Amino acid sequence: MNQKIAADTAQPPVPSPGFSLLLSSTRRGARLARLLAEAQLRQWGLPTDPATHLVAELAANAVTHGRVPGRDFRLTLRRVGDRLRIEVTDPRGERLPDVRRPAVDAESGRGLLLVDALADRWGVIEGPFPCKTVWAECVPG
Prior knowledge:
Strand order of the largest sheet: 1-2-3-5-4
Mean pLDDT: 89
Oligomer: single chain
Radius of gyration: 18 Å
Distance between the termini: 48 Å
């Protein structure tokens, strides 16, 4: 009988904390993504670097290359063991990220090079149609 009571009252494992919200596909939305990510990391007691830089680059790419008028992008942060997983989902699944070396005098085009340098690993998940999710993982601090 005690075993049944213990089994009935046992708490399910607590999932790792997560944070997810929709933001407008504008420069202001990308800036807000970075600021909210920084606040969430502080609330979790985690260092903010390099995660906030990764959020800034992924959000900037979403509003620059993944923007569809009237559609938002989603920022998701999750702890996976000692790693932080950052996901940015936008409505332009047909426009997959492409890492290129920009011209020396180019004023833009280095975002994915920064993501590649700062993240332990990163990638793209296609779908659900018409979306894509670009993700990066890092160990905060």
